[in-house]
């Protein structure tokens, strides 16, 4: 039995950075830890944080699990709300972004679990929401440069009699 335990530990060592073994009253418990891309050590066991276990994977290639998803996402929402202040108040873009990120921040800080937050916002996993927020942070300066709200000329749209180009009989 001991050799099976040691060979299992060897096999898993390539996937996990640290193993901790605790022996109590003839029982041995091994906790495995893994390192995410963010270099933070996350336990690979269930925890009792709001009765929810730590997510092991997002299931999306290249998108790692966030270590502190609620605080991280709330901070990203704050950054978006701060950066959007440099867009004119009457711009539709600012209105939409402010409404969305105020709502998302409110839901995120409501005391719900991560899965409840994801379900309420209904726009993907919290890691995907974080990617969206980071993308928005990159877009805001570009929108300020392009100033689409200052579009001053009208666009005429010609209505073609036969837009498909298919001859009618």
Key descriptive features of the protein:
alpha+beta; single chain; 3 strands; 3-stranded antiparallel sheet; 169 residues; extended
Give a description of the structure.
A hairpin with a 2-residue loop joins strand 1 and strand 2. About 27% of the residues have low confidence. Helices cover 43% and strands 11% of the residues. Among the domains are: 34 residues, no CATH class; 80 residues, no CATH class. The protein has a 3-stranded antiparallel sheet with strand order 1-2-3, with no helix packed on it. The chain has 169 residues and is an alpha+beta fold. It has 5 helices and 3 strands; from the N terminus they run αβββαααα. The longest helix is centred in the C-terminal third of the chain and has 21 residues.
